[in-house]
Every structure is written in structure tokens, then in C-alpha cells.
Amino acid sequence: MHLIGAVELHMHLIGQPMKGADGMNPVAQLDVGDSTPEPSFGRWLKESSILVVDDEPGMRNFLVKTLSARCRRVEVAANTDEASRWLENDSFDIVILDNVMAGKSGLSWLADLRAGGFFIEVILITAFADLDTAIQALRAGAADFVLKPFRVNQILTAIARCLDRARLQRENFVLRRQLQSMPNANRADNQLVGDSLSIRRAREIITRAAPLPTTVLITGESGTGKELAARSLHTLSDRADKPFVPVNCAAIAPEVIESELFGHLKGAFTGAASSREGLFFYAQGGTLFLDEVGELPYALQSKLLRVIEEKKVRPVGAEREIPVDVRLVAATNSDLPQEVSAGHFRQDLYYRLSVLQIHLPPLRDRPEDIAPLARMLMKFTSAQIGVPALDLTPAIIVELERYSWPGNVRELRNVIERSLILGSFPEDIVTGNVSQADANPDALAAIERGHMLKVLEAAGGNRAEAARRLGISRKTLDRKCAAWNV
After folding, report:
1. Same domain, 347 and 381
2. Do 116 and 249 belong together in one domain?
3. Distance of alpha carbon 460 from the chain centroid
4. pLDDT, tens digit (0-9, with 9 covering 90-100), for 53-107
5. DSSP states of 40-93 as a string?
6. pLDDT (tens digit, 9 = 90+) per residue, 432-462?
7. Residues 295, 406: one domain?
């Protein structure tokens, strides 16, 4: 909450004009006729949606007149009951809330909102203010505190400050997650690279689907660029300036994934020392990317289906659902129809996710893409690690195209980076002998086994960490280890 210090606030309140003897707010004192040029109130104000909650028609009309020309959407409620009905069906960026109203006070209703799992930004406005009220507002979770009568610039500044702070908090959270979960991610851009017919077709579908709110399912083996395709969908959409939140469903423990996605209230379960927003809230207005969606616990799948259909989420421990505005993109390297037949994945969720499906074929099925991919990765990786790029001669390209690339583009990137570090391409460009691996499937399987076990050893036997480093799901690694009696 933005509050000036306790002493400064106390001094600020001394002599502050309050309500007149007739009990009416002095709206006439609001400076609506100032002819000075209007300052900038940030880039997010015009895209914001605001709910005004005040029992005085004059104040409601003034705020609507002030905000309608500057914001995307403004709605009003004369009391907290009307406001609750708005919040149950629509999502807002800011609530401007009067404290002293007939019936339930603004502070009391704000406390109920927070207890119910609503993490929306709230600006409290009141003509009856003292230090105790300010402290109560802070404890109740108000984001800002504005005293009546106020000037137009004061309320606009408070709104802009809340919007900037909320966006920065979400962006900071998303960036921290990306750095923690993908420390070695190399992204030159958000475009799928390649000249093959399949990649050109995938780019065409992405371009057509990006502006639409349709849920998209991206399929393909690990390392084929599913997250890159999801980012392309986001970048080309009208949500591009809003958050893109990637979630690896296989990397989150089943017992906490519901809380991670939907958020939770304080005391909802053991260890929930405070309330927390879920990833759906951090993706508000943008795109939530559920990678390895086939790894979701079966019990959670029905809840995800309801979120997709109702556009509402229920934080763990909350009694009511909260509207969200999120575009959902999912990806999997599993055969979901087979998982449906085996009873591991809900059929209704599969059909709801695959309204539009984009398949990314493995690199071995599109060797014509290897050369442009290698050149792009060489340019980007050499700049990233600060070493001179190596010459991709025709002979090297031929060797790269002869290999089957079980790790797909991710493996190709690793080969490029390893060669840059060594200063040259080794005789056997990839791990093991290329021609032998292509000629003998058993040799390729032995290479895969040796590589996976080496990574597992480097991770200290931690299979979750090894799976993350390998770019595969924990379930896939467990299945491999069981087959190898490890």
C-alpha cells in the first residue's frame, strides 16, 4: 500500500476539509476545470478496467466522467452488494472504493474480498480520515488511500501508480520463474526457424490463430520448439504487451500444483502462512502456457476444464470463484488420445484443449531445417557466451544432417554450444559416432542411455533435477530408468 509516513499523514490530515454540515461530499471542490496541460499517467491507464463503488451519485458521476475518456472500461456500483455481483462475473484492474457507505463499510467489504481470495488492487477514498483509518486500510489490503476532496490529477496518479506497481510485481514474478526454471534458455526470437513444409505450415497456423482467443494444443517430441510456438502465438496476438507465463506441469509436485495455478488463502493448508495469487492471476490479460499438460494429476484436470469453460478460478481455501481473462495454450509430448484410452487423461479436457492443434515434427523428419537452425543457433549462442562463431562448412552441415537428433533442436543447440566452447567441431560432431548411430539403432539407444545416466549422476541422483536438465518429463525419466533397472 502506498501511504506517506505516519507523522506526515497525521500532519497532512490536520486542516483537511471534510464533509459539510449537510453531510454531502464537496464534489464541487474537485478541480474539473483546470486548463493546464494534463500530465502523462502511464501507458496502462487507457487499457485499464475500473469499478467505482460509492453510494453518492455525485461522486459516481464525477468519477465516470473523469475516467471514461481515459480508461478502457468504467463500471459503477452504489453499494457493496452490487460491487460483489460485478466481481463475480467480470475482471477489473482497479476498484475505487468509498469507505463510509450505507450498510457495509468499504474497509469491512475489502477485508471480505481478501478473505475470499480476491487480490484485485483497491484504492480507498474517504472524507473521514485519520491515522487509525489509514492503518486499518493498510491491514485490510488497500493499495492506496485518497482523501476527499481530491483533484482529478490526484485520483489519476493513484490509479496509474497502482497499475504500474501491479504490473511490475507480476513481471518480476514471471521473470524470476523463467530464470529459475530455464537458466540456460537460448531464445534468439519468437519465430520458428526452418524451411520445411511442416514448419511453414505451423507458422501459417500460428499467424491465423494468434489474434483469436481460441485454446491451442501444441504437440511434438521434447525439444521440438513447443514453447517457442506458444510464445509466437502470444507475440502475434493483441495480448503481446501482457504477461506470458510458462508452467512446466511435470516439474511441480502434484500436491501443490493446484495452489500454484489458482492461488491460496492464508491457512488453507499446512504451511500456507499468507495468501498468494496463482499463476492464472499473474497471467491476467495475457497468455498462460501449460507445458506437459499430460502430466497434470487426474483430479486437477476437471478443475482446469471448469476454468476453461467458466473463465473463473477458485483459490484453494476460497468459497467463491474469481473471473480471469487469460488465453490458454497447452503443449504435450505425450500421445493424449492414448492417455485418454488408458484412463489417465480426461476425454472432455482433451477435446476442450485441442480446439486447434499444432504439431511440430521431430528434427529427423525435416533435415532441410537443420542448416538454417544451426546458423541461427551459432550466431545467437556465440554472441551469448562471448566467443567467435565457428564456420559451418558444407561438410559439417552434411554431418549434422546425417544424425537423427533424438533430442531435437535442444540437442542441436547443445552441440553448437559445446563446439563453441571447445573452439572447433570434433571429428564426431555429436556424442558418439554419427554414422554408427544412424546405422545401428542399438548404438543410438546406448548413447541415449549413457547421456541420461551421466546427467542423472551429475544431478546427484535427483531425478526431478535430471529431468529438468534433460528437457524431458519426470515420468519419462522414471520409465527409462525402470527399463534400465536403475
Report:
1. no
2. no
3. 31
4. 999 899 999 999 999 888 889 999 999 889 988 988 888 889 999 988 887 888 8
5. P--TTGGG-EEEEE-S-HHHHHHHHHHHHTTSSEEEEESSHHHHHHHHHH---S
6. 434 444 444 555 567 678 778 888 887 888 8
7. no
CATH code at 225?
A: 3.40.50.300
Cα–Cα dist 245/223, whole Å: 19
Cell digits for 222?
521434447
Q: Which domain holds residue 56?
A: 6-167
Per DSSP (E only), the strands in 275-335 are 276-277, 287-291, 312-313, 322-323, 327-332
Give the number of other CB atoms < 10 A from CB of residue 374: 21
Q: Give Cα 349 distance to the centre of its chain.
A: 21
Look at residue 291 and tell me if it is in a domain.
yes
Cβ neighbour number for residue 295 with a 10 Å cutoff: 24
Q: Do 454 and 431 share a structural domain?
A: yes
Beta strands 276-277 and 263-264, pairing class: antiparallel
Chain Cα centroid distance, residue 322: 17
CATH number at residue 89: 3.40.50.2300
* pLDDT given for residue 244 in this prediction: 92
Residue 166, pLDDT score: 84
Distances (CA, A) of 110 to 25, 95, 102, 282: 22, 10, 15, 21
Of the three residues 103, 137, 167, the one that is the final residue of a domain is 167
- Residue 191: the pLDDT is 73
- 293 lies in the same domain as 148: no
Instruction: Give residue 310's identity as a one-letter amino acid code.
Output: E
The neighbouring-strand residues paired with 2 are 144
Q: Are residues 122 and 201 in the same domain?
A: no
Q: Is the pTM of this model over 0.90?
A: no
Same domain as 319, residue 423: no
C-alpha cell read off for 472: 524431458
Contact present, 3 and 145 (Cβ < 8 Å): yes
**25 and 86 co-located in one domain:** yes
Close Cβ partners of 309 (under 8 Å, ≥ 6 residues apart)? 352
Enumerate the β-bridge partners of residue 50.
74, 94
